[in-house]
Amino acid sequence: xxxxxxxxxxxxxxxxxxxxxxxxxxxxxxxxxxxxxxxxxxxxxxxxxxxxxxxxxxxxxxxxxxxxxxxxxxxxxxxxxxxxxxxxxxxxxxxxxxxxxxxxxxxxxxxxxxxxxxxxxxxxxxxxxxxxxxxxxxxxxxxxxxxxxxxxxxxxxxxxxxxxxxxxxxxxxxxxxxxxxxxxxxxxxxxxxxxxxxxxxxxxxxxxxxxxxxxxxxxxxxxxxxxxxxxxxxxxxxxxxxxxxxxxxxxxxxxxxxxxxxxxxxxxxxxxxxxxxxxxxxxxxxxxxxxxxxxxxxxxxxxxxxxxxxxxxxxxxxxxxxxxxxxxxxxxxxxxxxxxxxxxxxxxxxxxxxxxxxxxxxxxxxxxxxxxxxxxxxx
Length: 379
Description:
Layout: E1 9-13, E2 19-23, H1 35-57, H2 61-79, H3 86-89, H4 101-120, H5 128-138, H6 177-189, H7 197-211, H8 218-232, H9 244-249, H10 251-264, H11 267-303, H12 311-321, E3 326-327, H13 329-336, H14 340-352, E4 357-359, E5 367-369, H15 371-378
């Protein structure tokens, strides 16, 4: 099917009067004649290949993965209205002011869902089952905990508006969800369908958001699905690419382009937007990894080397800071298996050398932040 002739679906009037959108199946090969798609696909594929190669040759890349996950969880949740920032996400819930603890828990759940889903790909393919497992973790003990965690919806949902009467978009009825998700799953794994991976996951993400199979959490699970697909198909070896930051910065275009497919069948513009998201996000990710490596080399070569006999503990603390850039003296004491006095001494040395800075912005106790590192993810 040429994407210029794509028919997204049909509005079907339901018994109570509203019209829900039932998308067409997508499990078939797509083609296109628009040359701009080829150009963008080439650029995005080139940048993705560069990012993948770069990430494989970085020593200790796994040290930095956690921060990529935390950033994705924070930004993806922010798209849905959660107001937790990265600094808050990196401290204990008890240190968060009570009115923001629900938001903190939602971000924490998303981190847990990602940390579950990515290694789970080794034993379970990207599937409805895996998405349901992730969804169950996502909604555990938060505001959506009564919205069927881990299960597809059993009632009608909608997007925008206060009710079905003024909704911006009404997905298909719940009794269509299993059929449509089955078609989507087949599309993801059908090796006879000759569609480039980036086009394929662009189509799959659109279809997932259109089906909206869960009562809550569809946006976050749909964005997680992108990374899971790229990892499962060995497009990237490490989970260092997440598109939520681009989608959040261009939130209006993100939703407008999805809706344009449903309203006017304009699949081409959605694909162009998605490919540009991959292209720009890869460039930013490569720049960030270069900055991280430069910072690590500076800390190890210009600062840790001066610790003398304390250098092994200093190196151990520095490596820890690249996974957890906000620490307390108690945490440092436990990490290094030293006394409280010794932990404060090494923290003070890190502060004097400009690696750590003290923060009193949380509820209790003093926190110390590896600010230069955290800033790389927040710029």
